[in-house]
Structure formats: C-alpha cells, structure tokens
Fold:
Amino acid sequence: MNKYLARMRAERSQTLAPDQPSKPSKDPFEGFERRWLCTEQCLDMLAGVEAELAGACRLAEPEPSAAERAAWTTAAATLVEALDPARPRGDATAKRWRQFCADAVRFAKQGWLHRARAAGWSMLELFGGDQAVPFARVDCAGLILLLNGNEVVWITGRAAIIATATGTRQTYRRQTIDPACVVLIVEIE
Structure:
C-alpha cells in the first residue's frame, strides 16, 4: 500500500469520528418562546386592524333609503325587461349579448345595483356604452358591459372589485362618463 494513501485514510478516520465536538452546540429551541409571543402579538394587532377597517367600510357605505331602493328597483326592472337576449344591440355577437343580459340580471338580483347607487354610481356608469360600437370601446364601457361572466364582489364610490372564474380579483376604477358619446345600452339599436 502506498504510504500517502495510508496517511490519508488515517487522517480521514480521525476527522469522521472525533472524540469531542469542536464547539458546544446551541439549544435549537432557544429564543423560540420569544418569537412565538411576537407572532401572536402581530396576529392580534392585525385582527384589530381588520375589525377597524370593516367598521370603516360599513360607515362609508350608507344603506339607501326605501324610496331610493324602490326607484332603483323600478329602473332596474325596466332596464332588465328592455334587455332582450334574442335581440343583440350594437356590435355585440349573440353569445356576448346573452352574457351581458345575464350579467345585468345577476348584478341587480344580488343587490349590487342598490349598493352602487348608494355609493353614487349613475346608470350610465353601470349600463352605459359607446353609441356606435359599445362592445368594442372599452374606454366608454360601463361596469356591467365589462363583467363578461365575472362577478362583482365589492363596490365603493371609486371602484368595483370583480372576481374572475380563476379567482383573480380585478379592479374597475370608476371613470367620468361623457354623456355626449355614452348612452344606456338599451337605447342602442
């Protein structure tokens, strides 16, 4: 056997099985209790902030009066009746028009119409579209025109949060509507 090989084996056997550890090891759970308490305190703080935000949201969204609800219910019923799924308007395909009609009915039935009205949205901001090509002009489209099968999950005076089929949340920011070029979708032939 080679003397160098014998020496390497001897050194290797000494490094693999030392008699004493090179450094005393630290207790792996040392400081764990302190970190755990910090985490619990953070969670408690977050729960308090969530409760405050929920209360602020309730205050920011006043419930509409009975008269307002009745007026908007009548307007919504008239609008929904005027939406004939068999008669597409503007540049809409038959499939896209049926989806728009279903979105409008669902929006009204789920109570979002009343919440939108309480937050200050107008009918044009909800059901409006470009006079010539309402489905092509996204910049002039109202909220319902852009839903396309997705659902509103939250609405404020500034924006609406839309949940897509994949679970993604999209924000539709309320924009100023130019009444000169935007009309209610039912007024389009």
Q: What stands out?
A: Helices lie at 3-16, 32-60, 66-82, 94-109, 112-118, 123-127, 143-147.
